[in-house]
């Protein structure tokens, strides 16, 4: 009888599935691990930008511009066209809808894909 390789056994267990109580622990560990990696990377990038510029003025210039869409000059995307064609008093509503639009696609896809594991 050949010796059992623990790495191969772990991989095989992950592919075939594990008992439900262990699966919940792995899901929680997986979620916490990738959330911390994402937040850590974001923090490193923002702090690196601060040390390069010696000010926090870049935050409203980058993230504020993306969220508020103040410039409506024509470009490759269709964002400017939608905002140029609507009435001014609806602009805040449409900006919010367009920014939330990303979550309408990513959250169901993430939940559906997460069930496959």
From TrEMBL:
Looking at the UniProt entry, the stretches that span the membrane are 37-56, 62-83, 90-111
| The UniProt record lists the keyword rRNA processing | no
Does this entry carry the keyword Transmembrane helix?
yes
Localization: Endoplasmic reticulum membrane
Q: Where does the protein principally reside?
A: endoplasmic reticulum
Q: Its membrane topology, per UniProt?
A: Multi-pass membrane protein
Instruction: Give the keywords, sorted.
Output: Endoplasmic reticulum, GPI-anchor biosynthesis, Membrane, Transmembrane, Transmembrane helix
InterPro entries listed in its UniProt record = PIG-U
The pathway it acts in is: Glycolipid biosynthesis; glycosylphosphatidylinositol-anchor biosynthesis
Task: Report the Pfam families cross-referenced here.
Answer: PIG-U
Q: Which GO BP annotation is one of this protein's? A: GPI anchor biosynthetic process
**Protein family according to the UniProt entry:** Belongs to the PIGU family.
Q: What is this protein called?
A: Phosphatidylinositol glycan anchor biosynthesis class U protein-like
Species source reads Xenopus laevis
| The organism's taxonomic lineage, starting at the top | Eukaryota, Metazoa, Chordata, Craniata, Vertebrata
């Amino acid at each position: 009888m050949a010796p059992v390789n623990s790495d191969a056994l772990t991989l095989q267990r992950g592919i075939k599935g594990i008992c439900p109580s262990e699966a919940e622990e792995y899901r929680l560990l997986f979620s916490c691990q990738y959330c911390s990696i994402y937040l850590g990377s974001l923090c490193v990038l923002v702090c690196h930008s601060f040390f390069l510029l010696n000010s926090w003025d870049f935050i409203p210039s980058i993230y504020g511009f993306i969220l508020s869409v103040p410039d409506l000059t024509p470009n490759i995307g269709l964002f400017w066209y939608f905002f140029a064609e609507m009435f001014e008093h609806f602009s805040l509503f449409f900006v919010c809808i367009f920014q939330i639009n990303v979550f309408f696609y990513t959250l169901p896809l993430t939940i559906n894909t997460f069930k496959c594991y």
